[in-house]
Amino acid sequence: MSRFQPKNPDYRAIAIHTFNQQRAMQTLGISIARLEPGEVDLAMDYSADLTQQHGFVHAGIITAGLDNACGIAAFTLMPAATGILTVEFKTNLLAPARGERFAFRATVVKPGRTLTVCEARAYATHEGVETLIATMSGTLMALAAREDAPQERTHAPA
Q1: CA 81 to CA 98: how far, in whole Å?
Q2: CB-based contacts of 76, cutoff 8 Å, min separation 6
Q3: Are the CB atoms for 95 and 132 separated by under 8 Å?
Q4: How far apart, in Å, are the Cα atoms of 54 and each of 14, 30, 127, 128?
Q5: Contact yes or no for 136/117 (Cβ under 8 A)
Q6: Helix (H, G, I), strand (E, B) or coil at 69
Q7: Within 10 Å of residue 95's Cβ, how many Cβ atoms?
Q8: Of 118, 96, 104, whose CA–CA distance to 45 is shortest?
Q9: Could you say which residues of the chain have pLDDT below 70?
Q10: 3-state SS of the chain: helix, strand, coil percent to 5?
């Protein structure tokens, strides 16, 4: 059970909807595996299309998974009609990203009215063994909904 109480009773549906709107996560094949107030686990299968020159998943892909995990974890604790943006993160790459499957697990360290601090860990499962490959500390900012906010686009701007 989570140690946090969400401010929005519909946090789960809204967080899943927000995640599903992110085309980058769809492109990378990242999905939500577990979602609780202040916590999320994301999952990604290995794809050769996401590797660097040595065949490991690129550090930018691992960082994107960690950043998104922090964002969704923080978002679960935000009030209704709130958006979210990352304002800062630090990543430590601890081991090569080699594996058949990857997990990005984030938890809120300190929720706030405007800024929320999260920690995340990335794991690679290779030949049945899970290895910690990266960590992240991130700060995310709550954005109040605005009437003049850009609408969802179905195509690139002209």
Answers
A1: 39
A2: 4, 6, 11, 12, 15, 35, 36, 37, 38, 39, 40, 108
A3: yes
A4: 38, 22, 18, 21
A5: no
A6: helix
A7: 15
A8: 104
A9: 1-2, 146-158
A10: 25, 40, 35
